[in-house]
Amino acid sequence: QVQLVESGGGLVQAGDSLRLSCAASGLSFSTTAIGWFRQAPGKEREFVGVISWSGATTEYTDSVKGRFTLNRDNAKNTVYLQMNSLKPEDTAVYYCAADKSRRITKRPGGNEYWGQGTQVTVSS
C-alpha cells in the first residue's frame, strides 16, 4: 500500500548537478522522515541523508556534505535531493526510504519501505 517512486537520475559529467525526486503515497507523509541511500555495483547499500518530517532538520554522510541538499514539499508528498558538484564516486542507484516508525535508521535493513531506485552515472 505504501509506494515510493524515485525519478530524476541520468548520465552527467563530473561537476554537474542533478535533482532527484521521491514521490510518496499510502503513508502519513507530512509526519514521516524520508531517507536517501545509494548502492554502487559490487558495494553495499549506504546511507546518504535523511530529512525530518517538517524539513527543519537534515543529516548527511560525510562524503556528500556541502554538495547534496535535501528539502521537501509536504503539500506534494515529495522529497528532493539536490546533488551539486557531482563526482564519479557518486555513481550508484539511488533509493528513497521510509519506515512505519516514521523515523529513518542509517542501516538500510532497518527501514521497511523502499522505492525502485534511479540510476545516477557521473563520468570524468
Question: How would you describe what is shown here?
Answer:
This protein is mostly beta strands and 124 residues long. Helix content is 0%, strand content 48%. It has no helices and eleven strands. It has strands at 3-7, 10-13, 18-25, 34-39, 46-51, 58-60, 68-73, 78-83, 92-98, 113-114, 118-123. The radius of gyration is 13 Å and the shape is globular. It starts with a strand and ends with a strand.
Question: Which terms would index this structure?
Answer:
0% helix; four-stranded antiparallel β-sheet; 124 residues; single chain; 48% strand; mainly beta
Mind sketching the topology for me?
Elements: E1 3-7, E2 10-13, E3 18-25, E4 34-39, E5 46-51, E6 58-60, E7 68-73, E8 78-83, E9 92-98, E10 113-114, E11 118-123
Parallel strand pairs: 2-11
Antiparallel strand pairs: 1-3, 3-8, 4-5, 4-9, 5-6, 7-8, 9-10, 9-11
Task: Put the structure in a nutshell.
By secondary structure, this protein is mostly beta strands. It has no helices and eleven strands.
